[in-house]
Amino acid sequence: MTTHFSTLLTKTEHQTFKPFKTQISQSNNKKSKKMSLFLLLALLLLPFITPSSQSSIRNLLEARGLPGGLFPDNVESYSLDVKTGELEVQLQNPCFARFENRVYFDSVIKANLSYGGLVGLQGLTQEELFLWLPVKGIAVNDSSSGLVLFDIGVAHKQISRSLFEDPPVCYPPGSIMEKIEKRKMDIQLQR
Whole-angstrom Cα distance, residue 191 to residue 188? Predict the structure, then answer.
């Protein structure tokens, strides 16, 4: 035979527990409202508190003696293993950009970051005379020279540092803007 707890209580005891239950319920409700308000406030302020991925990757590169605009404007996130120097940059999508020539960024770019250089670069190719060549490294050997050195395997190309001051606008493959940029390059090569 099962008896419920409420049947064991006398009428007076029932009345004593009722306000206690209400008090607990009201207390939990207040805590819940405070927590909800706190979470809402945190979500609203979060964009102002955390730096964007683009500005933080820019700061990281500049702190390591490289120009801040090496990566495009659609950086989603990045990670850096401080022990090994391994840098991984995640983009929102693969895209085309332009420095001196057109370049193509994969959605993930990896390299070993050291002071003044990105070595063992993967995920970046550059167009040279209708050929797409992988960029294997980027270096700034002498910051006073105003030059950035691109290692494209078969050669080293010197590019003005001023082209890398701001992150390039990056266009997804097949977009109308990417086609316009390609057409501009084709016209310049024909001249």
Answer: 5
